[in-house]
Amino acid sequence: MKPRLDGQVALVTGANSGIGKAVAMAMAKAGAKVGINYVVNEEATQAMIDEIKESGGEAIALKADVSDEGEVKAMFAKLFEAFGTIDILVNNAGLQRDAKFWEMSVGHWKKVIDVNLTGQFLCAREAVNEFIRRGIVESVSTASGKIICMSSVHDVIPWAGHANYAASKGGVKLLMQSMAQELAPYKIRVNSIGPGAIKTPINKDAWNTPEAEESLLTLIPYKRVGEPSDIGKAAVWLASDESDYVNGATLYVDGGMTLYPGFATGG
Ligand code: NAD
């Protein structure tokens, strides 16, 4: 039986493209009411809401920059006004601003840390306040709340040319683990998903030509590039009571990218 999220409210950040979109749609399909956070492209957000409603689900659009404290607070207020509470937060919004280390501007450094790391802190803090205020609702879930941090294989694999991104995801790893440790007594579960290479706009150059894809596959023992739906399925399971004893874990959904593929034939 597939995991279900009936009667639960989920907020997915950066949810109108790529991985966030797949996660939001999968959660809606599993029965959750979904808050779809976005910063740009209102039409794509509305199209998702229409699709969810046509299938009998519920969703609302929540425009907010996750790195802005005021906008995050306003987003949660709007979510509570519509759906009353929150049960699942998926901290997915993220971006890259790549540069050689010695040429990286402080602006690009700060932008990536602000969105990828501070954004996760700001959203998690609002969600945790509500989880603690409301406590467990037994008919809904065995936990009082679940947080899924979208990390990356680059929370363990260093990444030349992407020092700001790798630093932000390394930060997410210990933010997630520290939250998991501190919040477990309140029955709040906090975990990460570490995607490998997933076909989305963020890494299009790495897979949108046959040559690029072939080169990328040398890093993936399972020999296929991931799809956003691979992450959607993992997120639904991590948010459901099927994973009730999983806390403080990073689930790498990466076709084995974290397995040091270079050592398969050498070492
Ligand atoms: P994407 O570019 O399709 O999605 C990122 C989303 O975040 C977009 O909707 C974007 O508008 C949104 N966003 C950016 N800045 C924001 C802000 N300030 N506030 C709110 N939303 C904002 O890329 P994706 O691949 O779907 O990325 C989703 C997450 O997955 C990111 O955290 C990324 O680091 C992570 N990830 C992706 C891959 C991959 O291979 N695609 C691998 C590892 C990790």
UniProtKB/TrEMBL annotation:
Transmembrane segments: none
Xref: InterPro entries: NAD(P)-bd_dom_sf, Sc_DH/Rdtase_CS, SDR_fam
Keywords: Oxidoreductase, Plasmid
SUPFAM superfamilies on file: NAD(P)-binding Rossmann-fold domains (SSF51735)
GO terms for MF: oxidoreductase activity, acting on the CH-OH group of donors, NAD or NADP as acceptor
Superkingdom: Bacteria
NCBIfam families linked: PRK07231.1
Family assignment from sequence similarity: Belongs to the short-chain dehydrogenases/reductases (SDR) family.
Name of the protein in its database record: Glucose-1-dehydrogenase
